[in-house]
Specification:
3 domains, transferase, globular, alpha+beta, RNA-directed DNA polymerase, 50% helix, 501 residues, Alpha-Beta Plaits, 18 helices, single chain
Length: 501
């Protein structure tokens, strides 16, 4: 593993029991890990878990609020997991080549550096070349949460080729035990207990931690042992640097069987984490054989890896010359894969992604317009109170409340009101400092500029540009709609901005 990459993993600035590592500390810790004995003697800290709310964007519908559990690994533990991830990734790459599954499993890999765009193009190109195919598309229910520990341990040692009673074997046994029987702390309960003890977050060199040392944490947790719970069921946490590659290792037997079966019919099988797709040319099988194959895959998942592929959620398609037919519903439809859809021989970005782009852009443009108005008004007034938003003109206040949830500004809780006050203060500060508003520049860059001017990793428009570039390579018979979709959405943004000014 590259030491600079290691540093990037242990220097992330999130709050945990220990401090993020400085460059010097990271270098020393990296050198320590080169001796396996130091990994064996390392004491792992519990994960800090909490739930975040995020918006899902169904096509042409209002966003739906969802919850997701996040697991934060301590900074030192993150370094160990990342360090060993590179070790097992190398072994897995070798194993997958020998067993013919190197092309099948495409997520969490250190070779090829495949993106979802590249993988999607490969699949759609294969469909295009074959003209007529059957497609099975499915996913494993609760993938990471349901990995069987016995199967995982078996395949880890199979891939690593380690013998019992060796130092490396004992190191991996410890890592497996920590991953499978992970300890966790609920952040909300922990924070409440932390505050009840009149403890304070520690600061050092512009980084923070809950405790200044392991001893301090040890004294705290000795009094509050009930804060830590241990996983006693199947599954591994998703928040570690090693979870992804372990999931690939878990699937080696399943991947090998399905790859051989697909190759028998001159088809392809690709698995991207818990999502998989199988494409089989019609020239070598009929529908009855295809249906038997689908049932076989579903049963194999249960028998080999103890995972469920829900039959009612499994998609079966017949594709002819770029036209997609849903076999179950007996209707023409689209094939959605890794963020792209094939419909009527045209590849487009899926509507959910476009709607998400539009929803966020609409909100950003409304806010930037409000900020511009406030900026202009603050130029004309000798003084605007930084604390009293109610002093703002009615139109500005109304716009502001609409953009930030539509609540009455005088009935909001103190945190919401403070956040709004801070935003207004910042805008006024920019005006008084005679500098422009960054949100104006951000809106132009993220939502209004032409696709061909977007810089790499700058915005969704950058993603559209990259997708168009990758999909345009080689020869193919389908049409591309990426730039057309972006232009249509940009026109809506320009109209919205005109209507607001």
């Amino acid at each position: 593993m590259d030491p600079d990459y290691f540093f990037s993993k242990v220097n992330k600035n999130y709050l945990h029991i220990d401090f993020p590592l400085s460059k010097k500390e990271a270098r020393l810790f990296y050198n320590e890990l080169l001796d396996a004995k130091n990994i064996l003697s390392h004491r792992f800290l519990p994960l800090i878990q909490f739930k975040i709310r995020f918006k899902k964007y169904p096509s042409n519908h209002k966003p739906v609020l969802k919850e997701r559990e996040i697991s934060l690994v301590s900074h030192h533990d993150s370094g160990i997991y990342s360090f060993l991830s590179s070790v097992i990734n190398e072994k897995y790459n070798r194993y997958s080549k020998i067993h013919g599954i190197s092309e099948s499993s495409v997520a969490y890999r250190t070779i090829n550096h495949l993106s979802n765009i590249t993988v999607a193009k490969e699949v759609f190109d294969f469909i295009d070349m074959q003209s007529e195919v059957f497609v099975m598309k499915g996913d494993f229910k609760g993938f990471f949460d349901n990995l069987d520990h016995t199967i995982l341990t078996k395949h880890i040692f199979e891939v690593l080729e380690l013998h019992k009673d060796t130092l490396d074997y004992n190191v991996w046994l410890k890592i497996i035990n920590n991953i499978e029987n992970f300890r966790k702390i609920d952040r909300d309960i922990f924070t409440q207990t932390f505050e009840n003890e009149n403890l304070h977050i520690q600061n050092r060199h512009n980084v923070s931690a809950y405790f200044s040392s392991r001893k301090d944490f040890g004294r705290f947790i000795k009094k509050h042992k009930d804060l830590i719970t241990t996983n006693k069921k199947n599954g591994i946490p998703q928040g570690t640097g090693i979870s992804g590659i372990l999931a690939n290792v878990y699937m080696v037997e399943f991947d090998e069987i399905i790859e051989k079966y697909s190759s028998k019919y001159q088809g392809i099988y690709r698995r991207y984490s818990d999502d998989f797709i199988i494409v089989l040319p019609k020239k070598l099988l009929n529908y009855e054989t295809f249906k038997i194959f689908v049932d076989y895959v579903i049963n194999l998942s249960h028998n080999i890896v103890n995972l469920t592929i829900e039959e009612n959620k499994t998609k079966m398609f017949s594709v002819s010359k770029g036209n997609v037919f849903d076999i179950k519903s007996n209707k023409n439809t689209s094939l959605d894969y890794l963020g792209f859809i094939l419909q009527q021989n045209t590849i487009a970005i899926r509507p959910k992604s476009i709607y998400k782009f539009y929803y966020r852009g609409r909100r950003a443009i409304k806010y930037s317009t409000m900020a511009s108005r406030l900026y202009s008004i603050s130029k004309q007034r000798s003084r605007i109170s930084n604390q009293k938003i109610k002093d703002l003109p009615l139109k500005i206040r109304s716009d502001y409340n609409k953009i930030y949830g539509g609540k009455n500004i005088f009935t909001e809780n103190i945190h919401e009101q403070k956040a709004k006050n801070n935003r207004v203060e910042r805008i006024i500060h920019h005006q008084r400092s005679k500098v422009g508003l960054p949100e104006i520049k951000k809106v132009k860059k993220s939502y209004l500029q032409k696709v061909d001017r977007a810089k790499p990793r700058e915005s969704f428009l950058s993603y559209v540009k990259l997708a168009n570039k990758i999909f345009s390579e080689g020869s193919f018979g389908y049409k591309l709609a990426f730039t057309k979709q972006a232009k249509k959405t940009r026109r809506k943004f320009y109209k919205l901005r005109r209507d607001l000014t």
